[in-house]
Design goal:
Elements: E1 14-16, E2 22-24, H1 25-31
Protein name: Redoxin domain-containing protein
InterPro entries: Thioredoxin-like_sf (IPR036249)
Organism: Alkalicoccus halolimnae
Amino acid sequence: MSELKVGEQAPDFTLPAVSGETYSLQDDLQQRPGWRYIIYFRGSW
C-alpha cells in the first residue's frame, strides 16, 4: 500500500483492540463521524 494523498479515503481495516474486541475503521466512522489520526509504527519487535 502506498501513502494516501490529501483528501483520499483510508481503506477500511480491522485490528484487535487491547480490550480483546476488534476495531474497524469503518464501524468507528459510522458510530462517531469526524477526523481520525492513524499512526502506524513499523518495527521488528
